[in-house]
Amino acid sequence: MDRQEIINKTEYFVKEILSKDSTGHDWWHVHRVRNLAKRIALHEGADIFIVELAALLHDVGDYKFFQGDEKAGEMKVREWLASLEIPASLIDKIVGITSQISFMHTLPDKGKRKDKENSSAPTISKELMAVTDADRLDAMGAIGIARAFTYGGFFNRPIYDPNIKPSKFITKEKYKTTEAPSINHFYEKLLKLKDMMYTKLGRKMAKRRHRFLNLYLKQFFKEWKGKM
Ligand code: ADP
Ligand code: NI
User: Fold this and answer.
1) Closest protein CA for atom 2 of ligand 1
2) Fewest C-beta atoms under 10 Å: which of 38, 121, 150, 203?
3) Does the pLDDT of residue 174 top 70, yes or no?
4) Quick check: CB of 73 below 6 Å from ligand 1?
5) What is the rounded end-to-end Cα distance, in angstroms, of the chain?
């Protein structure tokens, strides 16, 4: 099977799985991440084929689709790639990306106070950097805002509640189970992403999207207080 055929088949496979999702993991999110990741990969000199496949598959193995079972998601990606007769070494590289990409993996486990990237994380390839930056950028800016409220609405979260303060320290468990208002998510995740970019282009784009997040919050609180 040639590379284009592998990409086309994978695109179809992913569309089928994600077409029913409304938590922010829709096909158009994957479409944007794929395009952005390819653009970043070009700048970084990363392997475009690996980046494109990993970007397409990055949300298929998401823990949320498997009742929290991260390994089941990884197996699904592995099985799909094996069915395309992709060499095992390449499958490992792609799964290495799709299983590490989540923001949640950067959070400490319960009981551990550590708010930097997990120090035990394996070496980070250029391909992982490209896909991760693209995925994080899609959680920022105008689109990131739309996704946060879509997610919040789906899980019946209020927009904002001044009595519920954002958590300064958030663990993996808390990230998965939080029932906090959507605005809190800006402080618990979205505003942190700017400083988590791996690539030069990622950082440049994140800066602009971050500025927009701040602008939005400023306006939001002015309106909340009836000042505007
Ligand atoms: P990741 O793939 O980095 O783990 P998620 O799958 O957790 O990201 O999130 C998918 C989308 O939903 C992102 O845009 C994210 O910012 C948003 N989101 C996740 N958790 C919340 C939340 N508690 N409130 C509002 N938006 C959220
Ligand atoms: Ni994603």
Assistant:
1) 102
2) 121
3) yes
4) no
5) 59
